[in-house]
Amino acid sequence: MPFINVETNLPASKFPEDLLKRLCSTLAAALGKPEDRMNLVVKTDLPMMIAGSSSPCLLMSLSAIGVTDTAEKNKEHSAKIFQFLKGELGLSDDRILILFYPLEPWQIGKKGTVMSFL
């Protein structure tokens, strides 16, 4: 059950529903997770700076169980995600950052319990 938060200074018009669906599909494939388990929030039009510049940029936080817990896995995920974001949004490598967070089942509440018991 991955949780993806995207923060960007790009306008909302750059993120139509079909792009969000393609992003979810790309993320699901990259992480090896079913699409119906993906949770995505995109916040646009934010005042942001990366590396001291307010040029168009994007910061993604990605939390998941079992797939973001090693440098090797995150390197593979990063390559696939960067390729998508660069192609779809026209951003360069130096304007995208991804933060990976490993989760444990007991850290996710669902249906009045935690994932450990579901």
UniProtKB/TrEMBL annotation:
It is found in: Cytoplasm. It holds the Pfam family MIF. It is an enzyme of class 4 (lyase). GO terms for molecular function: D-dopachrome decarboxylase activity; phenylpyruvate tautomerase activity. InterPro entries: Macrophage_inhib_fac, Tautomerase/MIF_sf. Its EC number is 4.1.1.84. It comes from the Eukaryota. Keywords: Acetylation, Cytoplasm, Lyase, Melanin biosynthesis. One of its GO terms (biological process) is melanin biosynthetic process. GO terms for cellular component: cytoplasm; extracellular space. Tautomerization of D-dopachrome with decarboxylation to give 5,6-dihydroxyindole (DHI). Homotrimer. Belongs to the MIF family. This is D-dopachrome decarboxylase. It comes from Onychostoma macrolepis. The lineage of its organism: Eukaryota, Metazoa, Chordata, Craniata, Vertebrata.
